[in-house]
Amino acid sequence: MTIASDQRRKVAEFLLRIKAIQLRPSDPFTWASGRLSPIYCDNRKLLSHPAVRTFVRQLSSELIEERYGKPDGIAGVATGGIALGALVAQEMGLPFCYVRSSAKSHGTGQQVEGDLDTMRNVVVIEDLISTGKSSLNAVAALREADLEVKGLVAIFSYGFSDAVARFEEAKCPMEVLTDYPTMLEQAQAEGYITEEQSKLLAAWSSDPVAWSDERQKA
User: Fold this and answer.
1) Is CATH 3.40.50.2300 what the domain over 5-217 is classified as, yes or no?
2) How far is the C-alpha of 49 from the C-alpha of 21, rounded, in Å?
């Protein structure tokens, strides 16, 4: 299954409406890395909106089954992918596990939490793909736990070329419900941003580091 363009736009519309995605090209956000960005994405907000949550859960479940076949289990990436992953697992009637960012330093010292004896292969659920590093760290942990990773589904991706390359290198198929170009088109169509602001946002996407450096020097 390939997500149809109208479905991609619908997901983007929802994320903009509930302010899971916020756009401020003239007053950029500061990311944890210290870089400036005209966009901030917090897809955990969809959990507070039942209609949005249901749409994303059902669309994710359909995409998984048609793209990867029905897996033995669903694995959520901490923290943003845990709740959505559990919802998708419930929708599909499957076991669920989740992956910590690193192995815990106490108890059993596990990085993957759940009864792994109930599954041999999984599809990974992530809320957001930026560089792809944290997602692929989770994929590596699942593989080290002797689970086959059939692929990954994320709600939103910035579409950075280095992230795409990392997934290809890791031989991990990836699908997203919506992406940055679709979101920009939807944001302009619905009046969240002007045409000029859309150009600024597109410029950030093509070179986020240069965009941030230029504004930090200003």
Assistant:
1) no
2) 14
